[in-house]
């Protein structure tokens, strides 16, 4: 579905975000891209969505070279019928007077008829239990509601691939659990998911394959099944996904690896 060949990207031509990334994403995967802040996760999603053009390298999607999608409106239009990105901050995607208008915006840009747009918006609002918010302004929504509306703005266009940047960031426990359950349902229906996060429990709950981005390397340094990757504490420490505290009890010293997750976890050595 996606193939990246030695893809690099540098902000302002000098600040590396991605360095020589080789990556294949298969149809039907729930690929979780793990990494700390600044490792290149968000940049990767924006390149997959055709928002950024790589500084070097090639990208193929659905068998077509999309390297120049950011500069080619026709190619970008073709790509955005198949791929949708949910940004980390929902306010980036919610700018219309009402929720209904926000969800309708993408299909209207794709040239759908008014009747098709109305039917699609009503369907996706019902699926996400958002009908009662259709006439509400985005600034009146809670954090969890904004996240679901942002997801609705992507789902309404019926993409094959959904890219999600830190989808559970800043959510309360109930909203977080509801969103994870919703994403699991979307994957079960056949959507390919690519999720960028540093939350290990999210990776365990949703991932069929994990890729770990290096903080300094700005490319994958490990990949594998969730159980394999999440059991490798040395890898997680190196990648700055957990941190280790030393504790003294009299003359006895031991360490606690701490997961960087909303549900704080301890493993005792």
Automatic annotation (TrEMBL):
Protein name per the record: Cobalt import ATP-binding protein CbiO 2
Family of this protein: Belongs to the ABC transporter superfamily.
Gene3D superfamilies given in the database record: P-loop containing nucleotide triphosphate hydrolases
Alphabetized InterPro entries for the sequence: AAA+_ATPase (IPR003593), ABC_transporter-like_ATP-bd (IPR003439), ABC_transporter-like_CS (IPR017871), ABC_transpr_CbiO/EcfA_su (IPR015856), ECF_ABC_transporter_ATP-bd (IPR050095), P-loop_NTPase (IPR027417)
A Pfam match: ABC_tran
GO molecular function: ATP binding; ATP hydrolysis activity; ATPase-coupled transmembrane transporter activity
Location of this chain's protein in the cell: Cell membrane
Annotated ranges, domain ABC transporter: 2-240
UniProt organism field: Thermomicrobium roseum (strain ATCC 27502 / DSM 5159 / P-2)
Membrane spanning stretches: none
Annotated EC: 3.6.3.-
Main enzyme class: hydrolase
Family annotation (PROSITE patterns): ABC_TRANSPORTER_1, ABC_TRANSPORTER_2
Keywords tagged on the record: ATP-binding, Cell membrane, Hydrolase, Membrane, Nucleotide-binding, Plasmid, Translocase, Transport
Cellular component terms (Gene Ontology): ATP-binding cassette (ABC) transporter complex
Coiled coil: none
PANTHER family: ENERGY-COUPLING FACTOR TRANSPORTER ATP-BINDING PROTEIN ECFA1, HEAVY METAL TRANSPORTER
